[in-house]
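Treating backbone geometry as a discrete language has practical consequences that deserve illustration. In the encoding step, the backbone of a single protein was reduced to a row of integers, each denoting a local shape. The amino acid sequence and the backbone structure tokens for this protein are reproduced below.
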Amino acid sequence: MSNANVDLDLCFEIAVDLAIKSGERVYKVLCEKKTFKTKKNPIDLVTETDQEIEKFIFGELRKTFPTHRFIGEESTSLSGELNHLTDEPTWILDPVDGTMNFVHGLPYVAVSIALTEIGVIYAVGEQCLYTARKGKGAFRGTERLKVSKACDVSSSLVLTELMHMNCDGDENLVIKNVGNIFMNSRGVRVIGSAVMSALAVASGQAEAYFHYKLQCWDMAAIWLFITEAGGVIIDPNGSKFKLMENRMLCANSESLAHQISELLTDITFP
């Protein structure tokens, strides 16, 4: 995506305002009874709030940036269109990351907005704004984020997700991978939100996070937080990270990322 003729300061200012307004709305309904639908199967949920927030954010952005492109979880799910990136400025949005947590009243939920060199996240349970800009750092409020200094798997807390295993080959690979990391690390945790998991790494609360079944809207903002906080992000197989490949491994250092990668058996989803 090109930044030519894009006022990044204005984009950042508007993204912050929309993230706060949307996050506060999500917080208000977090503990209320929520209605939800399923997408392709009973575990793929979408709430009225997901749809409402995406419509609100994209609607407001289009008023100021009518020529920009937009990729959002809910609109993409409804249209069935494949996501692709071009040289045009493109906003990527996850209106409610951690929808299953949200439905069940768990606080690990976030609103995530990204545009090339900008990442803005509202952590709903914390009622806190996180921001990142390329070359300018990553912050929780005004506090600069920094990854931890643990340098070995044995002293690391690793986060992941127990996704449903509709994957090619051995269905036990997900459990096998978690077991391998568990046996070699300080511990493994699952919190149900890619965004909140990655923020934990960027904040130094955990050392690494990996997942094989994500979408670009899960990762668009968080890669910037990881790198600006001093961490790295790669493909779980050890190769270069690609946003549209739907998989990632982030860690506090390149060394730790590759240590973890070597413990994982690669998983391919159709």
In short: The first helix runs from residue 8 to 30. The longest strand covers residues 90-97.
